[in-house]
Amino acid sequence: MIKKILIVDDSIVARMGLKKAIPKDMPYEFYEASDGASGVEQFKTVAPDVVFLDLTMPVMTGFQALDEIMKIDKNAAVIVVTADIQKKTMDRVLEAGALLVISKPPSQEEIRSSLEKAGKFKEGVMKR
Ligand SMILES: [Mg+2]
Q: pLDDT tens string for the chain (128 positions)?
C-alpha cells in the first residue's frame, strides 16, 4: 500500500500541480524536496513508498539522485516525471532503476495508474 509520497522537483508550481493531481481516495502523506540532494536526504529519513522525481534540478540532478536512492534501497519505487521523454533519457533512467517514466506535466490518469503500478511493485505482484 502506498502511504508516503515524496515529490522531488525544483519547481514549486510543478510540486503543487502534481500533488493536486493525485487522487484523494487515500490518506497519503506528502513530503517534498526542491533539489536532488535534499530529495536523497528526505528519502533516508522518511522512507517513502513512492518517489516522484524531476530530472533537471540544481545542487543534484534527478539522474544523480536516482542513483543515490537506488544505492540506499534497491527496491525503491521511483517515478521519473520529465518533459524530456526522449528514448535515450527513458532508457537511462529505467536502466538506473526507475520504475516508470511519465511526461510532465502528468495527467491525473498517468498519476493514478503510476501509483497503482507502484503499489503492485511494492507488494511484489509486479516486477520492475
Ligand atoms: Mg526541474
A: 899 999 999 999 999 999 999 988 888 999 999 999 999 999 999 999 999 999 999 999 999 999 999 999 999 999 999 998 899 999 999 999 999 999 999 999 999 999 999 999 999 888 87
36 CA to middle of ligand 1, Å?
Answer: 10
Could you tell me the distance, in angstroms and rounded to a whole number, from the CA of residue 124 to the centre of ligand 1?
31
Decide if 44 is inside a domain: yes
CATH number, domain containing residue 56: 3.40.50.2300
C-alpha cell at 55: 530530472
User: What is the whole-number distance in angstroms between the Cα of residue 62 and the centre of ligand 1?
Assistant: 9
**Ligand 1 center–CA 61 separation, angstroms:** 8
- Sign of the Cα pseudo-torsion (66, 68, 92, 77, in order): negative
* 87, part of any domain: yes
70 within a domain of the structure (yes/no): yes
Range of the domain at 77: 4-107
Distance between CA atoms of residues 60 and 72, nearest Å: 16
